[in-house]
Amino acid sequence: MRTVCTLIIGYQALGPGSLAIAANRDEDPSRPSDPPMTLRLDPRVVGGRDRLAGGTWLAIRERRAVIAMLNRRPTIRQAPPSDRSKPTSPAAPPPPLRSRGLLTLDVASAGEAAASSSSGPFADPLASAALASAFGALRSARYAPFSLAFVAPEACWVLDHEEGREDRVQGVDPGWHVLTHQDLDDSSEPRAARLLRELRDWKPVSLDDVERGLEARLGEHTAPDPTDPSRLEPPVCIHEGRMVTVSCSVVCWTPHETRYRHVEGRPCERPFEDRSGLLYQPSRAVGG
C-alpha cells in the first residue's frame, strides 16, 4: 500500500490539549479503498481502509490520538548482483513484506491495559504504548521504508524505519510541522519547504481558521516561488503521474471540540464532508 504523501502536523498549535492534522493520500487511483469507517470497536479506531491489505493510512483512536503512515524514500542502495561465475549455495528468500497499513492499525489499537501500565519515554502512557506496539510489530515482520507519526494532545512522535538502518524516534515540539517522504521538516524536500514557509508565521485563532487554512493548503497547485519567480514550487495536490492525490483528511480538536473532515478525491475538485459523527456514533466495525 502506498501511503499518505503529505502530512501537516499542528501539535498544540491552538494551545495545550489541541492538535491538527491535514493529510493528502497520493496513490495509484486503480488501487481500491474505502472511505472513512469504523475499523475497530475496542478500542474505537476510525479511518479509511485499503481493500487489498485491509490496513489504513490514517487512523483516529477514540478522540485521543491520530496515527499516520507515510511512504519513506529509501536511502540504502541495493547491492549489485553477485558474480554468477562463482558457485554459491542457494539462500532462502527473505520473508515477504507486511503491509504498512496493518502496522498503522496495530499502533492505533494498542491495548488500554498496555497504555495504562507502560513506563515508556513519554508522559502520555498511550504514546508510549503505541510506540512499544510499533517496535513489537517491527520485531515480528518486515516492512518497506516508512515514517509513522503519532499525534495526541499531550504527546507527538515520528518513527522512521528502513531495513539496514537503525530505527529512529523523534519527539516533536509544539508548533507546525510537515512530513513527506523524507525527514520531518526537511527543507531540502521542495513540497515540505513550501508548506513550512507558509506555516511559519501562521497563527489561527479558531478551529474554523484551522480547517480553512489546512484545506486550502492541501489543494495547492504549482505556483511561482515567491523567493525566486523564475522557479516553480511543487504542487501539494497532485494531478499527474502514476501516483495522484486520491483523498484528503483534516482532523483537529481542542479540549472542547473534535472535528473530522474528509474528501474522496482531490480537494480542488470536491468539497470536504463532515465525518465527525464517526468519532461518536456506535457502529459495527468492518468485518465485525
From TrEMBL:
- Name the segments for region: Disordered: 22-42, 71-100
One of its Pfam families is TANGO2
Which protein, by its recorded name, is this? Answer: NRDE family protein
- Native organism is Eiseniibacteriota bacterium
Q: Name the lineage.
A: Bacteria, Candidatus Eiseniibacteriota
